[in-house]
Design brief:
By secondary structure, the chain is mostly helical. The chain has two domains: 64 residues, Arc Repressor Mutant, subunit A, CATH 1.10.10; 55 residues, Arc Repressor Mutant, subunit A (Orthogonal Bundle), CATH 1.10.10.60. The protein is built from eight helices and no strands. The two termini are 34 Å apart. The relative contact order is 0.09. The N terminus and C terminus are likely disordered. The structure holds a DNA duplex.
DNA sequence: TTGCTAACCTAATCACCTC
DNA sequence: GAGGTGATTAGGTTAGCAA
């Protein structure tokens, strides 16, 4: 997986402080993990509120726990399957958080920041989040997706030689 | 120094929206 | 239905901290 631009190649800017979970917090987390290793957005929010932590910290903890316990595949959405079995019209299981809508001015700010620094540290992300008016984790995800898009485009360009190259 | 693990990365995929 | 994009995942790496 490690290619150019991967964590191995880039200069890591781990600025955020390492969370130290209390014994009580770990107890709650482990209990929740045993019940549901793939908690929905709502459950993560509830846990975060209960433990006075931020949602993404919970998300990262579950992510690391699944890796630690060798979870390889996400299970089929049980709630959806159950409701289908009961013949209930469920359009979406709503596992995911609602999409964040970025206005063109917000996107302009983010794109400018992306050009300046594709790997902003937590401080920069928080600053940007303030400017744009969305939570910092949304900025983090936005940068991840944009970098991903950039890598795909670059790969495509590498696979398909440009017209100039074909001419010359 | 070493082992554990939070934080972070990419790549792939899902879910939703717009055209 | 296709394409764009935000959200989530697995799998991997990096680095902080306690023993």
């Amino acid at each position: 997986m490690a290619q150019d631009g991967s964590p191995k190649a880039v200069n890591h800017r781990r600025c955020s402080t390492r969370t130290k979970f209390t014994k009580d917090q770990l107890t709650v987390l482990i209990r929740a993990f045993n019940q549901e290793p793939y908690p929905s957005y709502n459950i993560r929010q509830k846990l975060a509120l209960e433990m006075n932590l931020e949602g993404p910290i919970i998300q990262t903890w579950f992510q690391n726990q699944r890796a630690k316990h060798g979870f390889q595949r996400r299970p089929e959405p049980e709630d959806l399957a159950a409701s289908q079995a009961q013949d209930q019209p469920v359009k979406s299981p709503r596992r995911w958080r609602p999409h964040t809508i970025y206005t063109s001015s917000r996107l302009h700010t983010l794109n400018t920041a992306l050009k300046n620094d594709p790997y902003p540290g937590v401080d920069s992300r928080e600053q940007l989040a303030k400017e744009v008016g969305v939570p910092e984790p949304r900025v983090h995800v936005w940068f991840q997706n944009r970098r991903s898009k950039f890598f795909v485009q670059r790969k495509k360009e590498a696979d398909e030689p440009s017209e100039q190259e074909q001419d010359g």
